[in-house]
Amino acid sequence: MKLVQCMPAAALALLGAAATVGAQTLDALARDAATPGDVTTYGMSWGQQRHSALTQIRPANVKRLVPVWNLSLDSSANASSQPLLIDGTMYLTTHSHTIAVDATTGRQKWKTPVELPADINGYLCCGIHSRGLAALDGVLYRTTIDAHVMAISMKDGKTLWRQKAADYKQGYSMTHAPLIAGGVLITGISGGEYGSRGFLNGWDLKTGEKKWHRWTTAAPGEKGGDTWNPGRYETGGAPTWLTGTYDPELGLVYWGTGNGGPWNPATRGGDSLYICSVLAIRPSTGEIVWHYQFSPGDPFDYDGTNELVLAELPVGGKPTKVLMQANRNGYFYVIDRTSGRLLKADPFARRINWASGIDLGSGRPIDTPMTAKIRVTEEASDFVEVWPSAFGGKNWMPMSFDPKRRLAFMNTVNLGMKVKYVKQDRPGGPNWYLGLELGGFLAPEDGMRGSLVAWDPVAGRKVWEVASKAPFWSGVLSTASGLVFSGAQTGEFMAFDAKDGRKLWQFQTGSGITGLPIAWEHDGRQYITVTSGAATVYGALAGDPELANVPAGSSLWTFALLP
User: Is 277 in contact with 289 (CB distance < 8 Å)?
Assistant: First the structure.
């Protein structure tokens, strides 16, 4: 893969000028959760807890929450982005533009288009959108759906450098926010359904030079290379399509990997490392320090890419540095992030029939007879019913974690699927490489396809649940005052009581919500911001009757208490 570099002298001059704009430094990134006037990281902290210390908006007064401004994003694509807020300016990405907005008035300051190939839509698997940005020293960093990485001047939106990460015509794309860690910009890749080979890249923040490249499928001669059938690692998947987390004290980045290519496990053979795993890597080199594989072999598209939330929890009576993930496979994992040792794995999905549990000694799932048979059957004669479906017990939409209440708040999915495994040669290009026939998705008998769940990761149990006919596809935000914010695919932005899940407030935004809400303050006033505008893979494939009349059209909303 050839690196395409564009760094003219004019761009170098712009980069120097950009460094004088904004107060975000590496120290500011590290302290993001403690500085509510700014939101400088994806996840509102390097540990992605998505929790705010602000308390002005409370359960007792949230009914007074009203919109203070709304900005059209002039797009009907999926608005699944999280804004950043730096020195009074809000920065936002769509798939087609990078935008700066005055945070208190909603006035657009600049809007810079992303130059995309005319035929790009024909090569995309799973959605046209952008989830967010990274920022440092007056520079914004983003990825694009044609698999490029960009640096942009925060002052005026001008491009400072643009690098090619992969060839979009081979099914590669990028929709995630980059991560700045250890002085390096780190990005992943999408495209697992096309039989691509996943990877991570480390980039020089100033020049865009590629500093390192790490494949996420193990080759022959490497550790884990013997977990693949011959040659299969080259098209084996393990995409890295969601943003990782970072512990600067340990000097480790944690990044999840996705499904194997094809889904059919008998074709790939063995565990197929490092699909469906968390990788702990050195940000300066991409070296893998340890890994844990959630779903060895992965017959069911149970990506391990969901957010890896960092926290400190009591384990065996001792404070322990952990990472937590609510995995697509239906289990909530708590892992010692210093060593990769599995501490807990508890079922959170309403129905699981692919495994009877997770063995804490080996860290491996305990296969049901159905899964054991699927692992060795390359060609099946009948469909089987699997729970959870490929949408998972929880999909990509990130949870929040309240460190004082020690509760995670997450949007879950309750669907099954029918699948029949078949032999398939890799078609190449923008064509699905699954090795199975999908016979449709199965709704539960009560019709409740999803829930907002409060989860106690220490006890490994559900504290409360708010069921919904259509699963919520929005990120979750919690606050120290005891509120939980999230959005519905039918358009309602909502606030719930963190104590019992009681809905306290809602506002109809005009389109489905798949955005990632943030909380911030300015001049003593607290605000909540979220994007609205849903055009999801779930909406296209799941046949959900609740979404039949939800209009497209994306916008940015900001709310505050009525004076």
Answer: no
